[in-house]
Amino acid sequence: MRAVIAGLIRLYPKPWRERWGEDLRESVHASGFRSWPNVLVGAVDMWLHPAVWPARDDSRRLARAAAMAITVAGDGWFVANLITEDGDGRYLPVLRVCGAVLAVGLLLVAPRPRFDRVALGVLLRRGVRGFVPPAVLIAGVVFLVHSGLVPATATPVLRYGVLGIWWGAWLALAANGCRIVANAGPEIVIAPGHRRSIAGTAVLTAATMVSAAVLIVFAIATAEFDAAAAICGALLLALAVTLAGAVWELPALTNDSPSR
Questions:
Q1: CA-to-CA distance for 139 and 154, rounded, in angstroms?
Q2: Phi and psi dihedrals of 197, rounded to 5?
Q3: What's the pTM?
Q4: Residue in 247, 114, 108, 243 with CA at minimum distance from that of residue 184
Q5: Which of 7, 80, 114, 210 has the greatest number of beta carbons closer than 10 A?
Q6: Burial of 141: CB neighbours in 10 Å, binned 0-12, 13-18, 19+
């Protein structure tokens, strides 16, 4: 039982564990297995609200909020573009516009690096460790496809394997980028201010919401119900709600307030 409780505690973000991990461990041990579902739900909730994790300063909270917004918006872009993989171009015009709006939101929420030698050196080392391995995989897939080593007549296992490596590498690239942003302290990057964070996250929310609405409407309006578009639209809607929650809580952030 102790091992299970320890595993549940490890699901929480490290800053949260350092502040309240022992208290939660004692509470779960006293309550027994009936509290395990609530602990799991709490862990998911904490990962969706990184801006309220314990932090030494406001800039670290805003950097975490930026990383969360970038992650969620990036996941939304990925989901929205999955629907175009089969060559269906009905969604492309609107999705391209939403993609451009997402880029504006990302520019607003992204922290700026400090232009000094130490900070840039740290970012460069972290970037090399986080970006080079998935970039090598992406380059390898491009080489395999364009060299003819993976022909169009290849077996489904090979084709789907290559496709899985392609998307997996891109997801790893995005995840590592968000991790770098989230872990960058004020000595390395300058986090966006409250107003820029709120504005950028609101823009990301709007673009994700419009993409969700477009996919759902197209799925319902077509002569034959498009289940894939409907599922992608529902996922996008859930991501938009997550971003909307971040917009709601950002104005209330303070340096010493670790709870919502």
A1: 20
A2: -65, -45
A3: 0.70
A4: 114
A5: 80
A6: buried
SS3 23: helix
Q: How many CB atoms lie within 10 A of CB 159?
A: 15
Asked whether 73 and 79 are in contact (CB, 8 A), the reply is no
The token pair that represents 247 in the structure block: 């917009």
pLDDT tens column, 144-167: 877 877 666 667 777 778 888 888
The better pLDDT of the pair 72, 121 is held by: 121
Instruction: Write out the two tokens for 129.
Output: 């460790």
Task: Give pLDDT, residue 260.
Answer: 36
Per the CB < 8 A criterion, the answer to whether 172 and 138 are in contact is no
Question: Which CB contacts under 8 angstroms, 24+ apart, belong to 31-36?
Answer: 33/1, 36/4, 36/8
Contact 200, 108 (CB under 8 A): yes
Instruction: State which amino acid sits at residue 71.
Output: T
Amino acid making up residue 167:
W
Report d(CA 179, CA 172) in Å as an integer: 10
User: Which residue type is seen at 46?
Assistant: M
3-state secondary structure of 112: strand
Can you list the positions of beta strands (E) in 112-239?
112-113, 189-190
User: How far apart are alpha carbons 128 and 140 in whole angstroms?
Assistant: 17
One-letter amino acid identity for 107? L
Residues with Cβ within 8 Å of 199's Cβ and at least 6 positions away in sequence, in order, are 108
Strand partners, 190: 112
